[in-house]
């Protein structure tokens, strides 16, 4: 006797509920080994790898880069930036990653593999936004647009760079103090529209939730610094500055100058990001 549509729906709900309960029980049992010394299972690795590749392809813009990726100057600039920020995890021609990069699971992809397999727009998106669950940070808040594209220029050229060439160029650029700033443009004027939304993203990128409980930001139950709910109603910041937007930006950017020996570290917050973060904090109640 065929089942009615309603009974089929009820069976589907029951099966879904049983599956969810089983998954929760598995998670809370602690059976799954999260140690980095154990490989991911084949299924978990496939899920992470496929989700990463499909997401990058879906979100990367196909717009042409704003600079010539074949320019020797841009490649050299990107090489210097890569040596400073990326080589530690991804390695370089003839140079292994540092201990942190070697110990990651999953392992960061090799620089030459990325330069060969990914489109320039995909590299730029990945560098700018980072990749969840991999340890890859988002560099949008730390490097300018031109610096990020310069790294792309180097990566696209990297399969043809020999170990001797990389060592010679990185040594020369380091000794000359060149940090890879060719053809940079000034930051665009700060825009108040969308500031709170940008600030929420910036808070995550500066790891503020590792010290503070912040409404709307998912993170650990941090009790290192004060919870930031209702910070807009506070009279003072750090006990020394009147709570105004200008002073908030000053405190976010230079806490050690405002209050020497404060536990609040200098995170290198830019002027734009500080204004955006302040906009988000002042909407918390």
**How many angstroms does the end-to-end distance come to?**
59 Å
Runs in which pLDDT lies below 50 for 5 or more consecutive residues are 180-185
Tell me the overall shape.
Answer: globular
From the 3D structure, determine the CATH topology of the largest domain.
Cytochrome Bc1 Complex, Chain D, domain 2
DSSP, total strands = 2
Q: Write the CATH architecture name of the largest domain.
A: Orthogonal Bundle
What share of the residues does DSSP label as strand, in percent? under 5%
**CATH C-level of the largest domain:** Mainly Alpha
Number of domains: 2
Q: Which strand order do you get reading across the main beta sheet?
A: 1-2
CATH superfamily of the largest domain: Cytochrome c-like domain
Helix/strand-derived category reads mainly alpha
